[in-house]
Amino acid sequence: MRTSIATVSLSGSLTEKLTAAARAGFDGVEIFENDLLASTLTPEEIRARCADLGLTVELFQPLRDIEAVPEEVFARNLRRARHKCELTRRLGAGTVLVCSSVSPQAVNDDALAAEQLSRLADTARDCGVRVAYEALAWGRHVSTYDHAWRIVASAGHPALGTCLDSFHILSRSDDPKDLEGIEDIPGEKIFFLQLADAPLLAMDVLQWSRHYRCFPGQGGFDLAGLLRHVLSTGYDGPLSLEVFNDVFRQAEAAPTAVDARRSLLVLQESVGRARLPAPVIPTGVAFAELVTPDAGPLTALLGALGFTRAARHRRKPVTLWEQGDARILVDTGPAVRRDGTRLAAIGLESPDPAGAARRAEALLAPVLPRRRTPGDTPQDAVAAPDGTELFLCATGSRGLPDWRADFEDTGREPEPAHLSGIDHLALTQPWHHFDEAALFHRGVLGLRAQESVDLADPYGLLRSRVVTNPDGSVRIALTVGAAPTDDTVHAQHIALATGDVVASARRFREAGGTLLPVPANYYDDLAARFEFADGELETYRDLGILYDRDAHGAFRHCYTRTVGRVFFELVQRDDGYRGYGAANAPVRLAAQHTVRALTDG
């Protein structure tokens, strides 16, 4: 299907928005009036610019407060509308959008509204354009799609149809039965379809619409269900995104446009209208790669955790550290000298790395170019929105390249295994990539996105959302904070699974490691909330172990100090615990701030 995006959905000048939309692969655009007014280009020049970029101008919008008003008011409105219809023609758009009136002068009279919209359609037809009438969720008298359609049907004008907007429809009702009436509208009378998702919020609908819309798959609306109803009518127009979002309007237009088009591809796939390579869901974490300009503090930390430097890369300054099935790569190459210690890449086990790469490229996440020497193992990687490289691995799979072939053993005897692997990874997202990251991991990698949660930090509020595969062998927590200059808030971490967190914590401390100290007040509160065996709470207090419990089981975890932008977590899940200790996050964050203040002081 043709795809379109409203210029209001992107940041920048009109020319920058058009360029971004075209490069992302959109077929057309909706020109928003404010973008036209602020542009130095004439309507004809905008039309030509779009044609040069391979874009069609699908719609000009919005025309507001037209119908159901006294005759003298309508005469003035019609004069204004005639000018806007002529602008629509000059832009090369075939349709102008008319929103249901919010004017205090409008009256609750459907017959009058139909009669005046018919006269408006006469004017539009004289200009060679059509009118798409849309019900605003906060319209004064017309606020539902079925009401708007009744007025359009009553007018019976060939140049007058309706525009369906997913936000205006789904923000008023999430009952699937309320969408069934869409199928009563003839497809040829649906002149336009605008799509936007949104988080499910309890707030004024106008403010919700103006600030919190997002791209399909990033919110809580059932857009696939709505789209199925629309397509069943025979609608053959474009799928167009109209997203008002404060973050998108400040972010760079080019990646936002790519994210927008990816969201439409995933949506079309969900309703059977796009044939994409099937998702290849990762089956585990092969490794986490840390880059560092100074390997000393990091390797000391890994050694205290029980990791052994098991192998070194044959041609690069990269070493492989192992403890049980947990693998950490340490890269000390010259390209990372100024970046500090950080988590740069994740190896994801894949049953079909080539298929996963095809899926990624189809969803606008091209395989990253890599410099390979003749002996290097072929290994594809794609970039997540935050820049983390995601390698598609087949560790030990028969008939597929194994990344470990690039390493040679050091001959060192491994430490006794007390860690079973990587439980989860936490990646801090740039403030403008949080929603994009969730869609990327869900659409490109086939991971499931859990509900977003808010975490209280002493200096702001954090949002976190976990993406995971069905069996939990891949868990990635995506977090964005309100303090973008705070390196502690924006630290990344690797959670290591153990069957006995007390023993692992003691081993770490005895090996010279330092655990994050936790305030005594936390343990006083634990004693009030939970019952513990004799001496158990005192052990947790001594080692800085945090505790949580859900309906499925218990969770015990503790943290190392931060090295650069990275710290480690030791976690013990018992009896099927499903969470990540979110209730303890405020305590952990406050403790990290305290340690940092003492260190800086």
Description of the structure:
- This protein has 601 residues and is α/β, with parallel strands linked by helices.
- Helix content is 32%, strand content 24%.
- Strands 17, 18, 19, 20, 21, 22, 23, 24 and 25 form a nine-stranded mixed beta sheet that branches. An eight-stranded parallel barrel has the order 1-2-3-4-5-6-7-8, surrounded by six helices.
- Helix 3 crosses helix 4, helix 4 (71-91) runs parallel beside helix 5 (110-126) and helix 5 packs across helix 6 (145-155).
- The chain is elongated.
- The N and C termini lie far apart (60 Å).
- Residues 483-489 have low confidence and may be disordered.
Short description:
With 601 residues, the protein is α/β, with parallel strands linked by helices. The chain is built from 17 helices and 25 strands.
Helix content: 25-40%
- Gross morphology is elongated
Beta-strand percent range:
15-25%
Structural class: alpha/beta
Radius of gyration: 28 Å
Distance between the termini: 60 Å
Largest sheet: 9 strands, mixed
Tally the beta strands.
25
| Residue windows where pLDDT falls under 50 for at least 5 positions | 483-489
Q: On the 0-100 scale, what is the average pLDDT?
A: 93
Per DSSP, the total helix count is: 17
Comma- or semicolon-separated keywords:
601 residues, alpha/beta, nine-stranded mixed beta sheet, eight-stranded parallel barrel, 17 helices, 25 strands
Spell out the blueprint of helices and strands:
Elements: E1 3-6, H1 14-24, E2 28-32, H2 33-38, H3 43-53, E3 56-63, H4 71-91, E4 95-99, H5 110-126, E5 130-134, H6 145-155, E6 160-165, H7 166-170, E7 190-195, H8 205-212, H9 223-232, E8 239-241, H10 253-270, E9 284-291, H11 295-304, E10 308-313, E11 318-323, E12 326-331, E13 342-349, H12 353-362, E14 381-383, E15 389-393, E16 407-409, E17 419-428, H13 434-443, E18 448-449, E19 453-457, E20 460-468, E21 475-480, E22 492-498, H14 501-510, H15 520-529, H16 536-543, E23 546-549, E24 554-559, E25 566-574, H17 585-600
Parallel strand pairs: 1-2, 1-8, 2-3, 3-4, 4-5, 5-6, 6-7, 7-8, 9-12, 13-15, 17-21, 22-25
Antiparallel strand pairs: 9-13, 10-11, 10-16, 11-12, 14-15, 17-22, 18-20, 19-20, 20-21, 23-24, 24-25
